[in-house]
Amino acid sequence: MRFDVKNKDLRKIGKKRIEWALNRMPVLERIRQRFARDKVLKGLNIGACLHVTTETAGLAITLKAAGARPLLCASNPLSTQDDVAASLVFDYGIEVFAINGENTKVYYKHIDSVLAEKPQITLDDGADLVSTIHKRASSSKYKVKLPWGSTEETTTGVIRLRALQKEGKLLCPVIAVNDAYTKHLFDNRYGTGQSTIDGVIRATNKLICGTNFVVCGYGWCGRGVAQRAKGLGANVIVCEVDCLKALEAAMDGFRVMPMKQAAKIGDIFITVSGDIHVIAKQHFSLMKDTALVANSGHFDVEIDIKSLAKMAVRKRQVKPLVMEYTLKNKKRIYLLAEGRLVNLACAEGHPAEVMDLSFANQALSSEYIAKNYKKLQKKVYKVPDNIDAKVSELKLSCMGIKIDKLTPEQKEYLSSWQIGT
């Protein structure tokens, strides 16, 4: 068995933490029981580039129970939980290539380690695994075996893959797990909302109430962050480029303004846009002394860190994962987690209860690819409706919640047009 993890001795801590998460992921447990019985992924290599956390461990264990050989690498250099990685290798026999704080060279070396086993199915969070396959396929240096299909966990990755499809360069079918209702309505909104605030508080011990809290982007992640910050008593400001989302933010009770205006009054800034340089040089120069800046989008491009470093006359680490940049005007700006995912670098990422839904989609989509890959075209697909519905049905059942069913009369009414005023 191949692996590259930080420290074998961390396995005991990791195993307890994995067990804690598994206890709070009942939907995945039910799927795992069926997978173990039917061996729906028997003999398949499944390469996964995901955040190596306790919740991801639950997915990897489920894939192995289905008869697959999971190979796991990190989708972010700072999101790996080293104790979890060690436990997955030495307690569960799962091949992991991930070390917290790994540099870019090691990051892609670990991706190479996964791809070396020619996985039939790949799971991505940010599309680095699939994009690496595509870059190599266009080069004569590599002999690339394309996967049967892939899944994508996050908005940023789906954007990249749709761009590939638009250019006619997508080489394998992809299921956009992020677009499942049981993913983005819960994981993005409630998971990102809670874990982002958690990361800021753990890193800084900053009091949130009474602050001007700027959320850059009002997609489902931005909605969640704004709601949680409001719940803690912050004065929430939303910056957007989309008229509809800006209008929705205003109707939700938040102040909406351009970034240049918000930069002057904000105390805490969170980027969740999926785009590049949302907070840039012109914004740093306007910020108040001791402004906190963090990112909860997938890649570390949303904050223009290079410009901030050039503007600074002094740079020092004042706390773990908190870097102080002093500008010429003596104002200090604090950057959290090197501009990487603050919720995973400074906290533990999304709670298990919400990842239960997301990884249930990942597991069932993997099964779907294994059964249907010969019929699938080289394009980005939504999660099949029956999978989305099944995940919500299982979650309600696990929560002990029952709902009504349509009567025959109601079904007939909804399928007819004759009855009016």
How would you sum up this structure, described in words?
The protein has 421 residues and is of the alpha/beta class. The chain is 45% helix and 16% strand. It has helices at residues 11-22, 26-38, 54-65, 82-90, 104-115, 128-137, 155-166, 181-204, 220-231, 243-251, 259-265, 281-284, 305-311, 342-345, 352-372, 385-398, 408-414; strands at 45-50, 69-74, 95-97, 121-124, 149-152, 174-176, 212-216, 235-239, 255-256, 268-271, 291-295, 312-319, 322-327, 332-336, 380-382. Helix 15 runs antiparallel to helix 16 (385-398).
Give the helix/strand layout.
Layout: H1 11-22, H2 26-38, E1 45-50, H3 54-65, E2 69-74, H4 82-90, E3 95-97, H5 104-115, E4 121-124, H6 128-137, E5 149-152, H7 155-166, E6 174-176, H8 181-204, E7 212-216, H9 220-231, E8 235-239, H10 243-251, E9 255-256, H11 259-265, E10 268-271, H12 281-284, E11 291-295, H13 305-311, E12 312-319, E13 322-327, E14 332-336, H14 342-345, H15 352-372, E15 380-382, H16 385-398, H17 408-414
Parallel strand pairs: 1-2, 1-4, 2-3, 4-5, 5-6, 6-15, 7-8, 7-10, 8-9, 10-11, 11-14
Antiparallel strand pairs: 12-13, 13-14
- Beta-strand share of residues: 15-25%
Q: Find the structural class using helix and strand composition.
A: alpha/beta
Roughly how many Å apart are the termini?
Answer: 69 Å
What is the gyration radius calculated from CA atoms?
22 Å
Annotated CATH homologous superfamily of the largest domain:
Adenosylhomocysteinase-like
How many beta strands in the DSSP annotation? Answer: 15
